[in-house]
Structure formats: C-alpha cells, structure tokens
Amino acid sequence: MSTAADRTYTTTVGSQVLQLPLVPLSDELVIALLITVDLGVGFAETAGRELAELMRPAQPDIIVSVATMGIPLAIEASRALGLDDYVILHKTPKIHLGETWVEPVYSITTDKPQRLRMDPARVDAVRGRRVAVVDDVISTGASLSSALRLVRRMEADPVVIGTLMTEGGAWKRALGEDAALVRTLGSMPLFHPDSTGGLVEDWD
Is the per-residue pLDDT at 33 higher than 90? Predict the structure, then answer.
C-alpha cells in the first residue's frame, strides 16, 4: 500500500526505471501518470528497441499507433524492426482526415468521448498487411479497441499489440481474445484512496 504522501510511483519500463507522479482523476481514482513525450529521445529509443524485440516474433509489416503519446514509440519501434513506414491514428479533428475512417473512443485521462480517425490517404499502407498496434499505456483498453476496429475495417491483420505499460486489469476484459496479443515492457496498478489517506494498489 502507498500513502498519500508518496508523490511518485517507482516502476520499470523494460530496462529503464521511472518515477511517475501520482495524479488524482477523481475522489476514487489515482493514476501513475506516464507522459511519453516528456521522457526524452534516449528513453524513447531504448523503449522502442526493447518493445520491438518483444513484437518481432509476430513479424509485423507496419506499426499503427495513436497520437500523440504513441508517436515516439511508433518511430523508434519501426526503426528497430527495420520498417521504413508507420501510421498514426488521430484523436484531434483535422481537415484531411474526414469522417470515413472514424471510431468512437474514451480515454481514462480525457473527460469526454473522442473520435479516433485514420487518414484516408494512408489506408493502403495498412490494408491487407500484418499490423503491430502500439500505444504508450493500456488501461481501460478503450483506445486500443477503437484502433483494432479501424485496422480490421481496413482488412488488415493485427498480429501483435505493443505497449510500454499496462495499467490495472480492466484492459484484459475489454480486449477479450485480443488480450493475448499484448506484449508489454511493464505493468502498474491503479490506486484507490482509503479511509486513512493512503492509496491502495488495484491490479484488477
């Protein structure tokens, strides 16, 4: 059990040790916040290389990831796998994305529903290929489920799911059979405040 005085949570992402800030999302839920884009080039390079090795046996042809946090990971994992292309799914509307390739999504760190969008010009880069779907953290599984739906709508085959961290256990239920595709560099719990001001770790 952690206490409310603990301002960080120590965890490992592959070979790298991180101190993550504990951030309340509500009166009942606290998370250890991993912000990939704030951790530097060296962190992303090492994490991408280590995740690529976990995904390599699945022999993906291309990586699909989710903006913004998944972008450094997609770049470095693609580089480590010897792939010269990757595709990013977007949560922010942009004029070139349109409404053809869209799936609803809800993130644990966002207070309102969003829509995950695929650039129509990039569909042929994914269609019919073996895809590694990569995200920084898998928590509820909602963002990942939306990404998998989009990939399958393009008649592609998600052969592996790569992530820096899994958080709690709800993602396993959300993903169902797809949970078996997940390869992760680490795991961490969610946290619930108790009556003494401490934090109870929730791995389920």
Answer: yes
